[in-house]
Amino acid sequence: MNKAIGILGGMGPQATIDAMNKIIKNTPAHCDQEHIPVVTVSIPDIPDRTQSIINHDDKPLEKMAEYLKILEAAQVGCIIIPCNTAHFWFNQLQKRTQTKMISIIESAVHFIQDSQIDEVCILATSATINTELYQSQFIENSIGFSTPSAEMQNKVMQSIYQYKAGNIQQSKEMMKEVINFYTKKKNIKFLLACTEIPLILEESIKAYPELFIDTTDVLIKNAIAWYQNAPIAKVA
Predict the structure, then answer these.
(1) What is the pLDDT of residue 232?
(2) For position 202, what pLDDT does the model report?
(3) Which residues pair with residue 214 across a beta bridge?
(4) What's the pLDDT tens digit per position in 151-175?
(5) Residues of 16-52 as b/e, b for ≥16 C-beta within 10 angstroms?
(6) Which CATH architecture does the domain made up of 106-214 adopt?
(7) Cα-based distances in Å from 224 to 22, 24, 112
(8) Contact 126, 198 (CB under 8 A)
(9) What is the mean pLDDT of the chain?
(10) CATH 3.40.50.1860 fits domain 5-103+218-229
């Protein structure tokens, strides 16, 4: 058996569970023993990533680095973070561990290129948008993109926070306003660049899968590909 996939989660807890479910759903297993081993750290006291970026502090980095050590102690073979905004600190985290980390942003870029998609509309937290985590990579790789207007971005952000607060229906209604606003204007493909958004838009994704790119799903498929192609761990 290969070394386990490590999940540095808790940002938020539902997004972490979604990532775990997607590992199970995308694994061609016929019995328990054929599933991929996963070690998950979901400790949700990591400070709000968006607020820390706004405040120019690294509080989430220190907490994530602390919990990274739990995954290292478990001797996982690779680590994924099912939170787009947390990737603001991805390179710094990678420098703190010798364990391979798979980037959700890099995974999305490769997927868009391989799928020959010309342009996407980025739906993400305001911190992910403002720090240009995706835009910088899209420019470098000649991928077209757009971002919501200030008014629509505020609705996206409020929808995410409402979901985290447990106000699910209100969250869904706000996000659907954004989707409806842009789908009326032109043929568009949405990049769901916050791991809560696929949960908020679950019904819409099932009804119109061609409209959406789920970055959690793309990350998970990359992690599964890593596991399937990783060298078999030797038994001491």
Answers:
(1) 54
(2) 97
(3) 192
(4) 999 999 999 999 999 999 999 999 9
(5) bebbbebbeeeeeeeeeeeebebbbbbeeebbbbbeb
(6) 3-Layer(aba) Sandwich (3.40)
(7) 10, 10, 18
(8) no
(9) 95
(10) yes
